[in-house]
Design goal:
By secondary structure, the chain is α+β, with helices and mostly antiparallel strands. The chain has ten helices and twelve strands.
Length: 267
């Protein structure tokens, strides 16, 4: 399937991914963004080619899987994995573990595991979740089997929803971060109180905010992985970057967050 994106956004080639992760990916920025976590105890993951269908042939069998990186001594080693896989996306696990290696044999979720210390609360706002006069509702997009494409109208609706949700969340929480994900936005809640919420409370929060077009399974905690800030979203060739509330209001993905491989050409 050929995806349709706002002007200038497109899938990154394997060599562009390599160029980005060798020369541009800023580990210091990642470190400082993740500074409230212990990086050694943070689990990372890559997806090689699930949505782009562009991947190194040797990873054919695992191209759709989230490949978990739980044995590393820091971001430098995580980068070695990234350069090995040259994935379409890089993620981290929002769970906090006393020691992630103890969870190797845990069933899918660790909510009742002794090793589990909490989970960062997050909201994922994506363009497929909003209605578009041209491209239809989520159901219509799903029926066409294209929930990946999006237009600027959908993007602007997502941007507005993100701003509104941020203002709502500000009433309850103090430490909020906004991140451009490549297609939409994430809001991370870093308040200690939010880390300790139960699965049940998260489900209630997800339901309470469903009208903002969030992916509920991210907020409810079922999906623990979230895109790593400063990594490349190779589906659209944009860098996932943190934004202030002011930056969010006018953020234009056609012009901003471009990796240098797009700046040197007219694409
Ligand atoms: Zn566990
Ligand atoms: Zn549309």
């Amino acid at each position: 399937m050929k995806y349709r994106f706002p002007r200038g956004m497109r899938i990154s080639t394997i060599s562009e991914r390599e160029q980005f992760y060798r020369n541009e990916f800023d580990l210091e920025k990642v470190k400082s963004w993740l500074s409230w976590r212990e990086i050694q105890k943070t689990v990372f993951a890559v997806i090689v080619g699930r949505k782009t269908n562009f991947y190194l042939k040797e990873f054919e069998d695992v191209k759709d899987k989230a490949l978990i990186i739980d044995e590393h001594r820091g971001l430098e080693e995580v980068l070695e994995y990234i350069l090995h896989y040259l994935p379409e996306g890089v993620y981290y696990d929002r769970n906090l573990y006393s020691d992630p290696r103890l969870c190797e044999n845990c069933p899918k979720d660790c909510w009742k595991c002794r090793n589990f210390l909490g989970q960062e609360l997050a909201f994922d706002l994506d363009p497929e979740n909003v209605d578009c006069p041209y491209h239809g509702s989520l159901e219509e997009k799903a029926a066409r089997k294209d929930t990946i494409s999006f237009c600027m109208l959908e993007f602007k609706r997502v941007r507005r929803n993100t701003a509104k949700l941020y203002k709502e969340l500000e009433k309850d929480y103090e430490n909020l971060r906004i991140v451009f994900s490549g297609r939409g936005f994430h809001i991370h809640v870093l308040d200690e109180r939010a880390m300790k919420l139960s699965k049940k409370e998260r489900e209630e929060i997800a339901e309470a905010f469903e009208d903002f077009g969030i992916d509920e399974w991210v907020t409810s905690g079922e999906m623990r992985l979230i895109r790593l800030p400063f990594s490349l979203n190779a589906l659209v060739s944009r860098i996932c970057i943190p934004l202030s509330f002011e930056d969010l209001r006018t953020f234009d993905p056609r012009k901003l967050a471009k990796p240098s491989f797009l700046l040197s050409t007219s694409s």
